[in-house]
Write a structure and sequence with these properties.
Layout (H helix, E strand, L loop, with lengths): L2 E10 L6 H19 L3 E9 L3 H10 L3 H18 L6 E4 L3 H16 L3 E11 L4 E3 L1 H6 L21 E10 L5 H10 L4 E2 L1 H12 L5 E2 L1 E2 L7 E2 L2 E6 L1 H6 L1 H4 L15 E5 L3 H14 L8 E4 L2 E3 L2 E2 L10 H7 L2 H11 L6 E3 L1 H31 L11 H22 L3 H22 L1 H7 L2 H22 L4 H12 L10 H4 L23
Parallel strand pairs: 1-2, 1-12, 2-3, 7-13, 12-13, 14-16
Antiparallel strand pairs: 4-5, 4-6, 6-8, 9-11, 10-11, 14-15
The structure holds ligand ME8.
Ligand ME8 binds next to strand 1, helix 1, helix 8 and strand 12.
């Protein structure tokens, strides 16, 4: 069976989950569910990033131990994900023993390859970003007050950076510059979207400097083997999680390399530069693809702790169901671009695309089936052009959805699905089943109703990775039985014509009541 391994970033435990975290995880979940539906052996990993100075400092501020902070945030993630219908196969914590073993093994492999050496370090460090900057990088990127040495700012987030001067281990990142460029050029799909690929190419062409990979100024992390004055840099620790969960270093890692690492645009360099270079140095296969999505603002404003406007998924779930949130986030913004989360936009999308189009098509189709044929599908007559066009549209949609999801274009996949729904509603108007009934044309009526119900079944099947709960309800009405979407497959259920004459659907019940 073909395997498919998808990952989310592991989230820092210094902060509560917000919609940015939910976004990546929902997107990864749709990839996992779609690939399961397509018959692949899926491994879907998410988890948390517990080490590093940022977490240590957050714990200190609350007067607790880092592990206590981690435990409490982990509880929030573990209860949130099922509520958002996240179907992850594993949840990794970087404080787990399996991960410590993997990180140590990774370190030793890098060391054995001669890719790590001990040196001396003098640089600037941004704690919130857990990123090192050189003097020149601060100046070049025009961070404000760049002239005054005691008031420097991070080129990424604009917050103050600290000067650090310490003995450190270094990773010979510079040695892999050419190999990485070759790899990116030889594999056009390695980094998506294209704009991010170009960004990485420009960065690497600008020259890679060896990377400091240990710290001596705090202790919350995994100690360097045989030199425990040093803690392994949190990004080396964190990135290795993708291998840990795949079984590194013990097992033969059937799921590695990952098919896709989904990430946010802010952590592109770590994933598309540091991580592949580390893997090359360790002589391990590289992930097949890294896709960076954009950032959400909320009602036009950047989410921030100080403004207190970080939108928390559990609050959102008090107002809207998980499927509506999942649908909105992946439909509203082309994946890869930035977007704005607004409640007006959410209600509008829901009311037009789900209540008016999708919900209405199902409801009117099943209602007519009950009104004219007691809920029962009847033998069909010969197909007319409009019928064949609907079947063709459904089959094209199946191929296009698969292609769109294959390149993480969720908005395109949903547009393909919605286009068939709109066609279905036009088909109803064009064929006017009420007139066929009046005219007593039972055969034509049966043909039209069959085409409606069968196309709905296949549309809902394709939508099910996005909206598992609503689709289970809709399929339940069509099939007249309780449906577990997780057991369905395109191979067994994706063909046109599987519904038989004589099948009785359930009475329609509204699935998408209008939101006001
Ligand atoms: O970066 N919109 O963890 P993290 C969309 N531990 N996505 C957003 C967002 C927003 N407004 N704000 C944050 C880390 N994110 C590391 C990862 S992986 C080996 C280690 C996204 O908790 C952000 O882009 O700070 C990132 O992908 C994710 O949340 C995790 O952020």
């Amino acid at each position: 069976m073909q395997r498919y391994y998808v990952t989310t970033p592991i989230y820092y435990v210094n902060d509560d989950p917000h919609i940015g975290h939910a976004y990546t995880t929902i997107a990864a979940d749709v990839l996992a569910r779609h690939n399961r539906l397509s018959g692949r052996d899926v491994f879907f990993l998410t988890g948390v990033d517990e080490h590093g100075q940022k977490v240590e400092q957050a714990a200190q501020r609350q007067g607790i131990q880092p592990i206590e902070l981690a435990d409490s945030v982990v509880r929030r993630y573990r209860s949130l994900w099922p509520e958002l219908e996240i179907s992850n196969d594993d949840f990794i914590r970087t404080t787990e023993e399996r991960h410590r073993k993997a990180v140590i093994a990774m370190w030793k492999r890098l060391q054995a390859a001669g890719a790590i050496y001990k040196g001396f370090y003098k640089d600037w460090y941004c704690v919130p970003c857990e990123t090192y900057w050189t003097e020149t990088q601060l100046k070049d990127t025009g961070s404000k007050d760049a002239g005054s040495l005691d008031d420097k700012h991070c080129p990424d987030c604009g917050r103050n950076v600290d000067q650090v001067q310490e003995e450190s281990y270094f990773f010979r990142l510079g040695d892999y510059q050419e190999k990485l460029l070759e790899h990116i050029h030889a594999n056009p799909d390695f980094i998506g979207p294209d704009s991010r690929r170009n960004e990485v190419l420009r960065f690497v062409e600008g020259g890679l400097r060896d990377l400091s990979v240990s710290r001596t100024t705090f202790s919350w992390g995994i100690p360097v083997p045989d030199d425990d004055a040093h803690v392994i840099y949190v990004w080396i620790d964190a990135l290795t999680n993708y291998l840990t969960a795949a079984g590194f270093p013990d097992a033969d890692m059937p799921h590695w390399p990952a098919d896709v690492h989904l990430i946010g645009k802010d952590i592109l360099r770590f994933h598309a530069v540091y991580w592949p270079c580390m893997l090359m140095a360790a002589d391990l296969p590289l992930p097949k693809r890294i896709f960076a999505h954009g950032w959400w603002t909320v009602e036009g404003e950047k989410m921030s702790k100080s403004k207190g406007n970080a939108l928390q998924p559990d609050k959102l779930l008090e107002a809207y169901d998980a499927d509506t949130i999942r649908y909105f986030m992946l439909r509203e913004v082309p994946f890869g671009q930035d977007g704005d989360f607004s409640f007006t936009a959410l209600r509008q999308r829901y009311n037009t695309e789900l209540a008016n189009d999708m919900g209405n098509l199902l409801n009117r189709s099943l209602s007519m089936l009950y009104k004219y044929q007691d809920g029962k599908l009847a033998a069909i007559g010969s197909e007319q052009a409009g019928d064949r066009a609907l079947v063709a549209a459904v089959e094209a949609m199946q191929r296009n959805v698969d292609a769109a999801i294959g390149k993480q274009a969720f908005h395109e996949a949903l547009e393909q699905i919605n286009a068939v729904v709109r066609q279905g509603n036009r088909y109803v108007e064009e064929n006017a089943p009420w007139a066929l009934f009046k005219q007593g044309d039972r055969e034509r009526l049966a043909t039209v109703l069959y085409h409606l119900v069968e196309s709905l079944r296949l549309v809902v099947l394709q939508l099910s990775p996005f909206m598992p709960e609503k689709c289970a309800l809709m399929l339940g009405q069509i099939l007249h039985t309780e449906v577990n979407v997780e057991t369905l497959s395109l191979a067994d259920h994706g063909g046109w014509g599987l519904l038989q004459a004589g099948h009785v659907c359930a009475r329609p019940e509204p699935v998408f009541p209008r939101l006001d």
